[in-house]
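Journal club side-thread
Mid-discussion, someone asked how the predicted structure for our own chain would compare to the paper's figures. Pasting it here so we can look after the session.
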Amino acid sequence: MHGGNPSLSIDITTALSAAGGVEQQKRLIGKWLDKDRATARAFWDYVQECGGLAIGDWKLVADSAQVTAVLQDHAAFSVAEYNERMRATSGRFFLGMDGIEHDRDAKLGAIIPSWNRFNQPSYPDPDALRDVHDTAAAVTCSVLAGLARRTEIARLTYARAECQVKSIELFGPVLDACAARFFGVPGHSAYSLFAWAKDVTWFHFRVYADKQVDQSPAEHASAQYRQHVLSLIAALPPEPRSGEEEDLPADVKRLREVVNQLRRLLGPDARDEDVARNLIGIMMGSLTATFKAFIEALLVQARQLGSDRIAWPEVAPSANPAASGCPYAQAHALPSFPHYDALIATPLARAKRGSLDTVYRKYQGTSETMLGNLTVVPKDLVIVWLGGTLDPAKPEQQDNLFGIGVHKCPGMDMGKAILNGVMSVLSQVRGIDAPRRRAMEGDLALVFDNVAALKTLKPGSLV
C-alpha cells in the first residue's frame, strides 16, 4: 500500500510527506477525519493497512482488537484530554474523568431513562423506553405534518415550492421534546439545545481541535446553555406542603425532580452551578450523539437505482438482532428496536461508521507499551477508529456504536428508543414517495415529492 486511495483522491503517503512537519501533518489528518464519511473511511483504511500510524506523539490505531483493548483499559488509557477541553468550556463531567473520580460521579447518570452502566448494575426501564420512543415518534409525525401544511401554503403562491426539511429541522424538535419531558429542560427554541451542544461537542471531540478557532464558539455556547439551565433552576417553585395541590407544567415538575435527585447524589455542598454543569453534560452526552447517529445513518442508506431517493430496507417487527445477539438486551428484557436495528445500527456497521467515529485516549502508563507495531510511550495520544469495531455479521458488536468500556454512552438505551421512534415514522414514506437526499448549507436535507404521503403517518409504539 503506497497510500493511493481513490476515495481520498490523493496519495496519503505523499500528502503526509509534503505536509512540512508533525504539526502540519496532524492538522491535515484532522481535516481528513472532519471532512466527510468517505474521506475518513479512506484514511482509516490506510492506517489499517499500514498496521498503525505514528505522527509525533499521535499513535493512530485501526485494528479492531487493538481498539477494543485500548478502550477497555481505562487504567492505562485516560480521558484526560476530554477533561481539559470540558474544563475550559462546559465544565467537568464524568465522561471526562478517570478512576475513582469517574466511578463517584457516574452515579449522576441515574437521571437518564433506562440508565446504562458498563460492567455494573444497570437500570433498564422498559416503560420509560416506551415513553421515550412514543415521544420521539409523535414529534416526528407532527414535524412532517407541519412540513406538508407549510408546503401546501407555499404552493398557493409558487406552484413549484419543494417539500424539503433539513435534518436538524426534523430532529431538533425531537431532541427538544425529549429534553423537556425527561430532563425538564426545554430550549429557548426547538433548536437551541442542539445548536449549543453542536458547538461545544465539536470542540470536545475533534481530534485536532483548533483551540483558537473552536474553543471560542464552545465557550460562548456553553455560557448560553449554562445560563439557560441556571435560570430554569432559579425559577423552580418550592416543594408543596403536605396535602397541598399544585398546578405546574410537566417540564417544571420534572426539572424539580431531576434537580433534587442530582443534589442528593452530589452531596450537601452542591451548588446550582454544579447541578447545571452535570445536567448539561448528561443531556449533551445522551442527546447529541443520538443526532450524530441519525445523520450518519441517513447518509449511508442505500439509494434507489438512478436517483438520490432512499431505498428503505424492509423492517420485520419480530426481527430484533440486538435482543437476539446482545447479552445486555437479553439479560434485561428490553423492548425490541427493529427500526433502529435495521435502519441505524446495521447500515452503520456495514459502513464501519461509529456515531463518534474517532475516539482518543492519553496513555498514562509508566513505561512504553506496544500496540501492534506501534511503540506507545507515556503521554502519547492514542487515536482509535471506533467505526472499525463494527461488524454487521456480529450483532453483539452493535452497541459499539455508542462506545466501548466504562465511558460508553450511559444514555445508550434512550438513544436507541429515540432513533427507533423517529425512523419508525420516517421510513413509512417508502417506494416512489421515499425522500430524496440533498446536501444543503453544511446540512443534509430530505426532499419529499408527495406531500400527501406525510399526512398519513402514524407514530406507532414499541412492543
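Post-session note: Residues 4 and 10 are 6 Å apart (CA to CA).
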